[in-house]
Amino acid sequence: MAIVTGSDPNSIIGVGINWGTMTNHQLSADKIEVMVAIPNFMLLDISQDPSYTDYWVDANITTYAYPGGVDIKYVAVGNEPFLKAYNATYFQITLPALKNVQNALTRAGFGNLIDFYIAISTKS
């Protein structure tokens, strides 16, 4: 459904289209395995605050990974956090972040269902 009002085409600022819910769940019930990533800028909070990690898992995993929902198989903790370009910024916080993610996934009931990884580049 598209609604356009007004008689002067130059006065139309935007057009709204209602797709309903058919585009809100693109990956639900598909046979596509999904990896969700935690960006590097979130690693400090994830590493220091288990309650924040629980919140992240609830918002990004539990909300979508239910029977008939998105088939989330993996969580990437950081995006190549050990690259030389980061000047060791993430060295001390990546492992604690990984442990907090593991614990949060277990508390949420995904401990045996979702694997977690740290993406590592072979480039310097």
What keywords describe this structure?
single chain; 124 residues; alpha/beta; 3-stranded parallel sheet; two-stranded antiparallel ribbon; 3 helices; 29% helix; globular; disordered N terminus
How would you portray this structure in words?
This protein has helices spanning 43-48, 50-62, 91-107, and strands spanning 2-3, 16-17, 33-38, 71-77, 115-117. It has 124 residues and is an alpha/beta fold. The chain has one domain. It has a three-stranded parallel sheet with strand order 3-4-5. It has a two-stranded antiparallel sheet with strand order 1-2. Strand 4 (71-77), helix 3 and strand 5 (115-117) form a beta-alpha-beta unit. Helix 2 crosses helix 3. The longest helix is centred in the C-terminal third of the chain and has 17 residues, at 91-107. It is globular and about 40 Å long. Keywords: Glycosidase, Hydrolase. Belongs to the glycosyl hydrolase 17 family. One of its GO terms (molecular function) is hydrolase activity, hydrolyzing O-glycosyl compounds. This is Glucan endo-1,3-beta-D-glucosidase.
